[in-house]
Amino acid sequence: MGYAQRRLISAATKHVSVPLSAARAFPPKEVLASSSSTFSPETWTTLHPPPPSALSALGHRIGLGSTLGVSELEQACTHPSVLPLHAQRFPSQRPPPANGNLATLGNSLLGLFASEFVAASYPHLPTLVLKAAVSAYVGPNTCAGVAKEFGAAPLLRWHRTPSTPLKPALLHTDALSSISRALVALVYQRRSLASARKFAHQFFLGRDVDLRRLLQFRDPKLTLVQTVEKFGRERPVSRLLKETGRFSNSPVFVVGVYSGAEQLGEGFGSSLKMAEYRAAEDALLRLYLTKTPPEMVRIPTATFPDIDGDVFTEGAEAGYVPGELGTSEVQLGSAGRSTVVLAGREGETEAS
């Protein structure tokens, strides 16, 4: 057995969902020819569609077996990068339908669903953090991970392309993410916007995303002073709540930030400055991460008629009660300059 034959068998065994009995003319004639050293198993697999049984199993795994047909699922798993290769190898054949337009539509729908969900759930979230949260919920890496959970990775048809002056190189993650986006678009086309939103909430927006890691403050004390002033509250004051081991090599201080008689945040540290920094950061996190209860979240797209068809289909619209708008975040001046002056920036923390 030659090198090309062994390489073909090794590549074929990796595609567990593609049985050898369903492959066309296996092994192909290119392997048995004398010039088999130029044969590429990856290219041969890319040019041939997955078996209908694997596509049907994919549809039933995601609960769309009765909605999407095999041809639609095959299109969702075919990246546009395959078309130039297919036209080069089979110029007389009709190119397979790709998921380029579907992925674009699905990306727009996922961005819409994620934006309104995050904005309604966290009304005080800063704009930049909201954008980062949307990327965490429906970004390329998340879409690629969802496609792997669907079991669609072995069914992906794509061809790696190098970078050009106009566009970067195509990576496997980018090609794999197009499957999830195309499926969202197909649900919208075959059913309705409400079904597509339900599909997105089930597989994308139902995940736990740690938004605390997305909130980074260069100077939380200054930001807290400006935020409190914007809400018309009393100027925040740091107070020492507890301490232990002040004169030892491992002291611990607990500091609270108060606006009047109300405690805004609390933090600890091995020094007073560290504890005060964490207390101001905790107060900002409590404000920006204030979450609306799920039963009180109002989403604008829920007003569209819950009937089969696109958004232009006429029907009874549901009522909509807008949620409370959060106050915009504090914008610090350029280069760290601000109109708010902290009195005694290097001063000591008050002792309770």
Structural class: alpha+beta
Strand percentage, roughly? 5-15%
Described by the principal axes of the CA atoms, the overall outline is elongated
Sequence stretches where pLDDT stays below 50 over 5 or more residues = 333-340, 343-352
The quaternary organization reads as single chain
Computed CA radius of gyration, to the nearest angstrom: 28 Å
Calculate the terminal CA-CA distance, rounded to whole Å. Answer: 83 Å
Total number of helical segments? 13
Number of strands: 4
Main β sheet profile: 4 strands, mixed
Strand order of the largest sheet: 3-2-1-4
Helix content: 40-55%
Reading the helices and strands in chain order gives HHHHHHHHHHHHEEEHE
Overall mean pLDDT: 84
Descriptive report:
- By secondary structure, the chain is of the alpha+beta class.
- Helix content is 43%, strand content 7%.
- The protein is built from 13 helices and four strands.
- It has helices at residues 3-14, 29-32, 41-47, 52-61, 70-76, 82-89, 100-121, 127-138, 140-150, 172-190, 193-205, 220-230, 272-288, and strands spanning 237-244, 252-259, 262-269, 350-351.
- The chain has a four-stranded mixed β-sheet with strand order 3-2-1-4, covered by helices on one side.
- A hairpin with a 2-residue loop joins strand 2 (252-259) and strand 3 (262-269).
- Helix 7 packs across helix 8 and helix 8 (127-138) runs parallel beside helix 9.
- The radius of gyration is 28 Å and the shape is elongated.
